[in-house]
Amino acid sequence: MKQDLIFMIIIRIIIFVTDVPGMLNTTAAQHIKDTTPLSPSHAKRLINSKMLLGEEGWVLIEHKGQHYLLRQTQSGKLILTK
Prior knowledge:
This protein is an alpha+beta fold. It has helices spanning 2-19, 26-29, 49-53, and strands at residues 33-39, 42-46, 58-63, 66-72, 78-81.
């Protein structure tokens, strides 16, 4: 159950980050692909984790005034911590 919640938070963060105009450069924007719509007003988006996490393997995310750390483990899994 907790993993499902974390997964949904990650998806929401990715959607938020990709919806902010001018936040992505053209190289990063080329890696985002729209797929089959979830509903008439929403579409799935695919972001390469390397583009999101960078060479460091982590990204600091601000959400509603709180900071979250999304990072990749040595085994390749993603962990979101507050």
